[in-house]
Each structure stands twice: as structure tokens, then as C-alpha cells.
Amino acid sequence: MARVESIYVCQSCGGVQAKWAGRCDACGSWNTLQEETPSAPLGTSASKAKPASARRSKMNWVDLGSQTEDPPRYQTGISELDRVCGGGIVPGSALLVGGDPGIGKSTLLLQVVAKLAQNGAKAVYVSGEEANDQVRRRAKRLGLADAPVALASETALSTILDGLKAEQPDIAIIDSVQTLWSDQLAAAPGTVAQVRACAQELVRFAKKRNTAIILVGHVTKDGQIAGPRVVEHMVDGVLYFEGERGHQFRILRAVKNRFGPTDEIGVFEMSDLGLREVENPSALFLDGRGGDASGAAVFAGMEGTRPVLTEIQALVAPAAFGTPRRAVVGWDSGRLAMVLAVLEARCGLNFGGRDVYLNVAGGFKINEPAADLAVAAALVSSLFDSPLPRDSVVFGELSLSGDVRPVGRTELRLKESAKLGFTQAFAPAGIEQDTLRIYGIDTIRALVEQLDRGQSRDDDA
Ligand code: TYD
Ligand code: MG
Fold first, then answer.
1. What CATH class does 79-279 carry?
2. How would residue 44 be classed by pLDDT, with cut points 50, 70 and 90?
3. pTM given for the model
4. Which DSSP letter does residue 217 get?
5. CATH class of the 284-460 domain in this structure
6. CA distance 437 to 62
7. Is residue 256 exposed (0-12), middle (13-18) or buried (19+ Cβ within 10 Å)?
8. Does residue 107 have a pLDDT over 50?
9. Domain residues of the chain, as ranges?
10. Residues 154, 14, 212, 103, CA torsion sign
């Protein structure tokens, strides 16, 4: 008999190595390699072997242009969620909902499954983390106790699959994928091998039985907890539920969607009665905005199809000693370094001996390059101690040459800004409209000059 060779699987990235080492070759993490004995692929063990005839199926070619209707969808009626999914949950699809432990995934999905059940779908909720009583108590607290959801507390994959086969639900929530274990593997629950194998089986089940399956996965900001990452490529959609612990709102973000657009977000507010939809996120993020302090700029951003306004705050202060600090919350630190370098090289400003802190208010995360100009404006405003006009918004992408490039969906950004009471915008040059007063900014130097003028006006006053 052939010797069974062990393999070593990185618990962080899922990378496989033939030999143990202290550091994973693939992702560079330390002490993450764990020994695993490869077993026969799932479903091929003697007890499960299918007759040859069942295994061999005939290839069925079709035209690329064949008529295909848009998939039907289960609508939850929670419009923030339906939009993120591209209009609702597609039957037979598999979704992964990831997020930090304690961020509110179980609460959200219990609300989702209850809504679907109330709308007539056959829905089940399998919890591997909480006992039935705990889930029931939560449902009662959320006012959902009478929703016809079948509930089970189980972690054994084979039992869950049998249960799903018997119940034949339209939609099933599996909370969480890290608690599942398959008896076909020796590895412990939560290891990459178990998570991958269990997710694979559930995804296969979803397709075969036309049951929409939502897998819950815990991840941490730095991706420390193993598992969900290796599931991402198997599922049809990946949604991340994020937010800062100290803040009331939560964001559901689609990072992959085979049945709709990505980059769409849903905004929720936490309450005693669970997650509430936020229809106007800009108002929420701008709520409690301070007075005429320098270093703040309102960025007119886009999240998917929706404009979202957020405040970007910068503080440039003399460095106490040693290397100046650069700290960023809610934006990319590499991008901050770039904006600082452009300001130094193209406008002769000096941030060298100064600490720079950048914060997106409310704990929101911005990924858009269109925020470059708003970040630059906040930095320069703090450096000059010259506030931007309180009723102004900023957007535009910065190139290394110092030019400001136009960004997409200008009209929507301006319309939303006007709706929220803003009257002027620092924006890439060449925009023609009459909702707001526009300062056309073609280079970063033009922005600095504008702010400098603002400062001298203040000095004169
Ligand atoms: P939970 O849904 O259990 O988080 P996760 O499944 O991501 O680990 O929520 C964590 C805690 O927060 C839980 O005690 C319930 C509470 N919570 C509320 O009280 N209101 C809310 O709107 C949410 C989302 C959570
Ligand atoms: Mg949970």
C-alpha cells in the first residue's frame, strides 16, 4: 500500500507545503502550518462510492447566446440587503457572510431568515455556536418569535446534510462554517481543511437541491482567523459585515457577486430590536459634525450605485521626537503616503517633521481613489490651520504629477451634496452643472492656492 504522506496546510492562507516550517512560504505567517493527512476526496470513500453509471454524465453544450432569463430571487424586504445581493437571494446559490466576531452576523441573518419565512419561503437556521434556546431568546428579543423558521443546533456536517435533505428548505443559514466538522477528515473543526471540505459539500448541496445556502464565517481585520478566505472562491457571493465596535452602524459590503454588482453597500444601524436599515447613510455619517475646525473635509463619495458623504479629518502636528508618525483609520495608508509625497513634491509643502493623523469620521472605510483630493484638502487645511468652507464638499483623483483627474458619477455626487445642504464643491475642472458652486481644481497646486487664499482672508479679518 502506498505510504500516506502528510501535508502541511497554512491555517492563515490555506497554502500547502510538503514539509513543516516555522513560516508559511505563501503568506509569510509564522507558526500557522499544521499537519494534515490527506484523506480520499469527500464522497469517494467506499461507503459513499456511487455506481460508475451515476458518475459518468454526458457533456451538454449550449450556445452562448441562448435565451437565459434573469434568475428569480427571494426578496427579504430588507432593501439594504436585497440591493447588496443584486436584488435578492438567488435560489440554489451559496453566499458567504464574513465579519468580525460579535459584529452582528447572527442577528442580521436571523432577521433575514425570519423575513423570508414570513414571506412564504421555507427557511431553516442551523446554529453551531448557540443552543436552540439562545437563538429563540434572541428571536423573541427581535420580535421574530412567531416567524416559521425551523431551528437546529448542530455541528456535524453529515447530520446537517441529512437534516437539509429531509426538510428541503428554500434557504438555509449555517452559522458558522468554522464550527462544522466532517467525519471524513481527521482535522479539528475550524481548521482550513475542515472549513474547506464542509463548505464544499454544502455548496454542492445548494446547487443540487436548489437550496440557497448562506454560510457565516468569522474573520478578523487582519485576516487572523483561518477559514473563510478559502471558501471565497467556492461560493457565488461574498458579503462582508463590517463596522467599528464603538459605533452604532454596520455596513454590509459585497466583494463578490456572481448574480449582481459588487461594491454595493447596505447600511444598518444597531438597536435593541436588531439591525435597522439606514436609508440615508450620508446624514448618519455627517451627524454631529463639529464647527469650523481646520483639517476637516467632506468627501462626496460613491458606494456602488449610491452616493455617500463622509467627513475626512486630518491632524498635522509637530512630531515630538524621532520618526514622525503616520496613522490612518478608514483609508489606505499607502495612499496617504502618496498624497503626502505629491503635496511635498508638487506644492513644496513640508510634512517631514510632523505627525500626520487621518481619520474617516464614524468609522467608515473609504476605498475610492476619488477621495484623494478630499484627503489632500484635509491635510492642507490642517497644515495651514485654515478651515474649508463648512458647506463645501470635495472629490477628485490625484495623479503623481499633481494633476487632478475627473471621477465617475459626478452628477450623483453633486445631487446628493445639494440634497444635504452643501452649496459648493472642490472638484475636478470641467464639470458643467448648476446645482452647486464649483471650484474647478485641475492641479493639486490650485487646491493649495484656494486654501491659502482662505487663510489670508482669515488673517485679514
Ligand atoms: P451577534 O449577532 O451575535 O454577532 P456575531 O454573530 O457576528 O458574532 O451580535 C453580537 C451582540 O450584539 C449580541 O449580543 C447581540 C448584540 N446586538 C444588538 O443588541 N443589536 C443589534 O442590532 C446587533 C446587530 C447586535
Ligand atoms: Mg454569531
1. alpha beta
2. very low
3. 0.79
4. E
5. alpha beta
6. 55
7. middle
8. yes
9. 1-38, 79-279, 284-460
10. positive
Query: In the predicted model, is pLDDT for residue 101 greater than 80?
Result: yes
In the chain, what's the furthest Cα-to-Cα distance? 91
Residue written as grid cell 458558522: 176
Which residue, judged by its Cα, is nearest atom 9 of ligand 1?
Answer: 104
User: What CA–CA distance (Å, rounded) separates 398 from 372?
Assistant: 6
**pLDDT averaged over the chain?**
88
Helices and strands, counts by H and E, the chain: 12, 21
Tens of pLDDT, residue by residue over 376-387, are 999 999 999 999
CA of 262 to the centre of ligand 2 (A): 24
Q: How far apart are CA 201 and CA 299, in angstroms?
A: 44
Write out the three cell numbers for 35. Answer: 499537519
Are 393 and 298 in contact, with CB atoms under 8 Å apart?
yes
233 CB burial (10 A radius; 0-12, 13-18, 19+):
exposed
Any atom of ligand 1 within 6 Å of the Cβ of 106? yes
Q: What is the DSSP string of 259-282?
A: TS-SS-EEEEEEETTEEEE-S-HH
Which amino acid is residue 457, in one-letter code? R
CA of 105 to the centre of ligand 1 (A): 7
- Cβ neighbours of 141 (radius 10 Å): 13
Task: Quote the CA–CA distance of 130 and 153 in Å, as a whole number.
Answer: 7
Centre of ligand 2 from the C-alpha of residue 96, in Å: 13
> What pLDDT, in 10s, does the model give residues 186-224?
888 888 889 999 999 999 999 999 999 999 998 866 655
* Packing angle, helices 444-460 and 372-384, rounded to 10: 30
Write the CB contacts of 165 (distance below 8 Å, at least 6 apart in sequence).
209
